Model the fold of this input.
Amino acid sequence: MNINLEEIESRVSFHSEAERLAGKLGMPRGLRQGERRAAVVIMHGFGGTMEDGLSRAASRLLAQLGYVTLRFDYRGCGESSGARGRVVCEDEVADTLSAVSFLECRPEVDPKRIGLLGGSLAGSIAIQAAGTDTRIAACISCGGLGSGETTLRWLHASSEAWQRFSAMIEEGRRRRERGETMMVPRFDIIPIPPAIRPGLPAGAIMEFPFEVVESLLRLRPIDVVGNIAPRPLLLLHPAADPVVPAEESVSLFRHARQPADLHLISNDDHFMLAEDSWISLDILKNWLKKYFPPTASTA
Done:
């Protein structure tokens, strides 16, 4: 891709509840004055930033295809305000919907054609948001969770690992009763294999307050994924994902209604849509052309 993000993006900020969220708004080349295009909100993963590999690669591809794009830092992450590391799932849904509201007011955006694209936890947040807000016209989840509890049980599969995880939860609840906040290391929550940890973006949060763990246990986009139809849904997932099992996207697909597409990709690790993920990028490009083109005249 020959798109230079620095040439097409401008820094923006918008509010979500009491927090100020930092973002980058991308305008495609060739956008005429008065023209309105489809837009995509691009969301980063668990405790990451808008500079992660998926966000940058997706922004380049979508700009090349003619979309307005918005990538942003969730509250408590990157350059946004909020208690650092407090990435509660319900708050991230609210931040996502605030991003949609921000785009609705932009003169370059068709307010009826705003989509979401997220990877890992953000893929689940995208589904949760689209399943509860009909303003969202299309939803793309890359390696998302259908159930936070199911995924955490899979990640801590041995009896010893689940016992340690359960003990951590009990300790966190005891401390909360005493008015204390317990911080939990990232890999005690989601044990990413060392071989793929370089995929984490610079500035990724490595410690989270205990309430983040409880919010992950509550997360169940599988309960609302069926509400997205008749709006289109694309589920991409690495077939051998070591962080979120591919069965999570399979379960989401089974609970979705048409139009929904599921693709399991054999040559991607958990951090999808990197610059060399040609299969995933081609699938995304062709799906967008069919279901969510950048201009209404080509729909």
Notes: Residues 5-154+219-298 form a domain with the Rossmann fold fold (CATH 3.40.50.1820). The radius of gyration is 18 Å. The chain has one domain: 5-154+219-298.
